[in-house]
Design goal:
This protein is an alpha+beta fold. The protein has six helices and eleven strands. The protein folds into two domains: 141 residues, Hotdog Thioesterase (Thiol Ester Dehydrase, Chain A); 127 residues, Thiol Ester Dehydrase, Chain A. Strands 1, 2, 3, 4, 5, 6, 7, 8, 9, 10 and 11 form an eleven-stranded antiparallel beta sheet that branches.
């Protein structure tokens, strides 16, 4: 049997991907996440096409059948605006053995055509039940946070629509079948199709801004989170927000009270 992971691919940058930010794309993404144009999670669009090749360079096709999005950390040096021409690249940086699977860390950079760094992101994937023998490479920045036991600044509820996955897929380009096809989702062990993790994060980020009294979504400098459980179409989310010295912490509960986002951190400019 072939090895599920190729350690030699760590540290090897993938191909560049070019992306032009348009007013239409900003508005379409905002509509898909019930937000204003310029929300911080829109930063995933310019790097989206770079992540899968970086993952495939390390993980076998069989391993990738067991992959889920585990963490996301966005460091936004400046907001994305219509008219920007961007160049993005992704590099797998770490492979980490865990008791029930394996973690792969992918770092992305997005720059303007003149070389100015616009944002950095760390995408962490988890391969359920796929074992690695070693833990090697450069890990993502830490953002662990315990919301329980702290006095919440606010608890904000958000309603997800039944067609939220379809709307998000159209706006983001993420058409992975677990979000759109109940039968496929069940074939990989899920109860049915699930909402995209980054769509859930967009709702939570908006709730944190609401608790902070910040109306402009472009004010976000850093947004980090761990995806801890699937979210389903039509659910009600509850985002619990706490104040930190350097920003806001948050987690998010599903309709039955289960934690679906953990270790959330949002920092403002």
């Amino acid at each position: 049997m072939s090895e599920p992971f190729d350690l030699a691919a760590l540290g090897r940058p993938g191909p560049e991907h070019r992306f032009e930010v348009t007013t239409e794309a900003l508005e379409r993404y905002a509509a898909a996440t019930d937000d204003l144009p310029g929300g911080p999670v829109f930063a995933i669009l310019p790097v989206w096409e770079t992540i899968e090749p970086a993952s495939r360079s390390v993980a076998s096709e069989e391993a990738r059948r067991r992959v889920v999005h585990y963490e996301q950390d966005m460091l936004l040096h400046r907001p994305l605006e219509a008219g920007m021409r961007l160049v993005s690249r992704a590099t797998p940086t770490a492979l980490l053995a865990r008791p029930n699977g394996t973690v792969l860390v992918i770092r992305t950079e997005t720059r303007r055509e003149d070389g100015e760094l616009v944002n950095e992101q760390w995408v962490t994937e988890f391969f359920r039940g796929v074992s690695a023998t070693d833990s090697v490479g450069e890990r993502a920045p830490a953002h662990r946070l315990e919301v329980d036991g702290r006095t919440p600044l606010a608890e904000i509820r958000s309603e997800l629509a039944e067609d939220q996955p379809e709307r998000y897929a159209e706006a983001s380009g993420d058409r992975f079948a677990i979000h759109l096809d109940d039968d496929f989702a069940r074939s990989v062990g899920l109860p049915g199709r699930i909402v995209h993790g980054l769509c859930t994060l967009a709702f939570a980020a908006r709730a944190v801004r609401e608790a902070a009294g910040v109306t402009d979504p472009r004010a976000v400098r850093r947004l980090a989170v761990r995806f801890s459980a699937p979210v389903f179409p039509g659910e009600t989310l509850t985002t619990r927000v706490v104040s930190l010295d350097d920003g806001y912490g948050f987690d998010c509960l599903g309709g039955d009270g289960r934690p679906v986002l953990k270790d959330g951190r949002l920092e403002l400019r």
